[in-house]
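Amino acids appear as letters; backbone shape is given numerically. Here is one record.
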Amino acid sequence: MSLPNPHQKVFDNAAAPSSHILTYLDSNPPSQTLAIGVTTAVPPTPHSFTQNPKFVSILNEVVSEYGHQDEDVVVQAKAFASPGGFNLGSGGSFFPGQHQERHRGSSRKQGGGGGAGGDGAGGASAQGGPGGAGRGGFVHLSDRRNPPDFGRIAWPEDILGSVEVDESGEVVGKLQPSGTYRIVTNEGM
């Protein structure tokens, strides 16, 4: 049997014939200690899968040690430190010359909302991106089975860990495991 990811291997479980051992290793019989987990269905589902606590511990050690160097984390950190559209709204970079005529009693003000020259769209419509306006914060390392839309955060079950980013977009310290990561979700493994 096989899974969509060619690096993930499926072996019959001699200890429980109605189940299968999932692993990244080619060795047969597979090491129960290093196995990802056990499943009663292939492909595994959240209901059929039991994760191996030892594997999760190893995964968290690796994520803690090297996750802050992940290319996705570094790119997110740089984007997070960007202005994030702080000057994209009306009167900003995209609409610098559009000044509204003010009418007596009008509640419209220059810069009064939106990226369309003060049309009232305001809020998120004028923000323009995921940046943290140069203030720093946290970014997350998530798996790629269900990538979030640009500027959005992955589902907690897909986040391996988080790391602090300073105001210049540099990663501060090492990644901390999330505690919410699930090896198998409804989106797969």
